[in-house]
């Protein structure tokens, strides 16, 4: 099997229908006005995209560009100059909105390639633009954290949370992902982060790796828990048809992925193994040792408000969704003209946002509070959702035993966990992954229809 969109069957069809949208190119003035008009909540999350890598992971679906390590300082220096200019443009645009930054998440690409001195500059710019001293969380590759002094520099610069891509403790499985580190590198990276005083560390594990067995996955879970990170996130290996990994599987150069039955067993193995060892399942894929913290990933993309900076970054104000140019040169060109580097955008209705919020809360965060829904949208859940096809969808899941409902909340059942995974990954493959896929094919599109 290959875990592509089509392998998710019904849920792929649902995602294609529910989230079908057209994004169009708009003038800078229109973009600015739309952002200000639709950014009606004071609490916002920020996302920064660092699109550079010193290698290409075979299944990576994100906007990324390979560079040589010898080019690193020159490339990063120029990128940070333009990134700071973009942050400054937003600070000027949104100065009168009194926004409260609640999270700063940095993805890529490879954010851990950026040295501490540049993070000091970026954090200083964020502080100036949003009148806040934000805590910064970055995704990191183990091989970038092997130099202890470099890790200390990152922490001293203000990077307080790290999500480290362990992926597996089996070196042969890492090789099938196109990863460039070893299991021993991952352990050394974690030791360095702890020595440097990192506040929180999440480790990413991947399952459904080509040729992986259920026993190997359980071994990975066991080794991860012995290290006692603050959080463990468990992601299936999703496959886009334009990825290197897809071509290698089709050419029989690496094995196929486990079948759907094994996918289900692996997912429940993570749930049972981690919760039995004191980890709390706050998301369907994220397990933390404390309820006071979790490494935030896709939640804000679904719910908003999220402001994204950098080439390839996506933003969602709640009523307006847009994406920056994936092309770094196009990104630089717009910044040099004092324009927001937005490639395309669209308006989002309150009904769609309500569905996205409900989908995120129920199928990613495991439970939807009707009171919180009303606080956010100013209307009762059944009143707003009852006007959409999502009501029928929930009725079907109640009948199948995937969810339960009472006066206060709607919750996933244990049976519904696997259904939730298929729903969540169908969204990821059909919306953000498809947008990046189209942008990388056509760097300057006039419009994009997804899925």
SSE arrangement:
Layout: H1 10-18, E1 21-24, H2 28-38, E2 43-50, E3 52-53, E4 65-66, H3 72-93, E5 100-108, H4 116-130, E6 136-140, H5 148-157, E7 159-167, H6 171-176, H7 183-196, E8 200-207, H8 214-227, E9 231-236, H9 244-250, H10 260-276, E10 280-281, E11 286-288, H11 299-303, E12 306-309, E13 314-316, E14 320-324, H12 328-336, E15 342-347, H13 350-363, E16 367-369, H14 370-377, H15 381-385, H16 390-400, E17 403-405, E18 409-412, H17 416-430, H18 432-441, E19 447-450
Parallel strand pairs: 2-5, 2-12, 3-4, 5-6, 6-7, 7-8, 8-9
Antiparallel strand pairs: 1-19, 9-11, 10-11, 13-14, 14-15, 16-18, 17-18
Helix pairs in contact: 1-17, 3-4, 3-12, 4-5, 5-7, 8-10, 13-17, 17-18
Largest sheet: 9 strands, mixed
Estimated helix fraction? 40-55%
Count the domains.
2
Query: What is the subunit arrangement here?
Result: single chain
The number of helical runs is 18
CATH superfamily of the largest domain, called what?
tm_1862 like domain
Number of strands: 19
| Spatial strand order of the main sheet | 10-11-9-8-7-6-5-2-12
User: Beta fraction of the residues?
Assistant: 15-25%
Gap between N and C termini, in Å?
A: 22 Å
Structural class computed from helices and strand pairing = alpha/beta
CATH topology-level fold name of the largest domain: pyruvate-formate lyase- activating enzyme
CATH class of the largest domain: Alpha Beta
As residue ranges, the low-confidence spans are none
Q: How does CATH name the architecture of the largest domain?
A: Alpha-Beta Horseshoe
Report the average pLDDT across residues: 93
Shape: globular
């Amino acid at each position: 099997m290959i875990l592509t969109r089509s392998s998710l069957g019904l849920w792929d069809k649902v995602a294609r229908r529910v989230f079908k949208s057209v994004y169009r190119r708009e003038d800078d003035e229109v973009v600015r006005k739309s952002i200000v008009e639709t950014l009606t909540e004071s609490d916002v999350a920020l996302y920064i995209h660092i699109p550079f890598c010193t290698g290409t992971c075979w299944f990576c679906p994100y906007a990324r560009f390979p560079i040589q390590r010898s080019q690193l300082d020159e490339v990063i220096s120029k990128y940070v100059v333009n990134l700071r200019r973009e942050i400054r443009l937003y600070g000027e645009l949104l100065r009168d909105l009194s926004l409260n930054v609640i999270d700063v998440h940095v993805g890529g690409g490879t954010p851990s390639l950026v040295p501490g001195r540049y993070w000091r500059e970026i954090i200083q710019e964020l502080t100036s633009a949003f009148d806040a001293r934000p805590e910064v969380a970055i995704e990191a590759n183990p091989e970038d954290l092997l130099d202890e002094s470099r890790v200390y520099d990152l922490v001293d610069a203000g990077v307080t949370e790290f999500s480290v891509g362990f992926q597996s403790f089996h070196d042969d499985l890492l090789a099938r992902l196109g990863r460039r580190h070893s299991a021993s590198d991952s352990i050394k990276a974690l030791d360095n982060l702890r020595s440097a005083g990192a506040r929180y560390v999440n480790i990413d594990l991947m399952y459904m790796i080509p040729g992986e067995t259920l026993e190997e996955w359980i071994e990975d879970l066991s080794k991860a828990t012995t290290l006692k990170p603050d959080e463990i996130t468990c992601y299936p290996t999703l496959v886009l048809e334009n990825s290197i990994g897809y071509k290698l599987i089709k050419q029989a150069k690496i094995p196929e992925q486990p079948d759907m039955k094994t996918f289900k067993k692996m997912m429940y193995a993570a749930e049972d193994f981690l919760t039995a060892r004191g980890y709390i399942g706050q998301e369907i894929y994220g397990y933390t040792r404390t309820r006071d913290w979790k490494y935030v990933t896709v939640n804000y993309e679904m719910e908003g408000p999220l402001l994204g900076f950098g080439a390839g970054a996506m933003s969602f104000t709640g009523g307006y969704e847009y994406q920056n140019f994936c092309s770094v040169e196009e990104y630089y060109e717009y910044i040099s003209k004092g324009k927001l580097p937005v490639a395309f955008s669209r308006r989002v209705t309150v009904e769609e946002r309500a569905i996205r919020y409900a989908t995120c809360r129920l199928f990613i965060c495991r439970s939807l509070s009707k009171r919180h829904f009303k606080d956010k949208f100013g209307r009762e859940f059944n009143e707003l959702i009852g006007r959409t096809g999502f009501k029928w969808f929930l009725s079907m899941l109640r009948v199948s035993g995937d969810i339960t409902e009472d006066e206060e909340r709607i919750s996933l059942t244990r049976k519904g966990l696997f259904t939730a995974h298929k729903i969540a990954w169908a969204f990821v493959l059909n919306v953000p992954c498809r947008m990046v896929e189209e942008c990388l094919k056509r760097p300057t599109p006039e419009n994009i229809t997804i899925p």
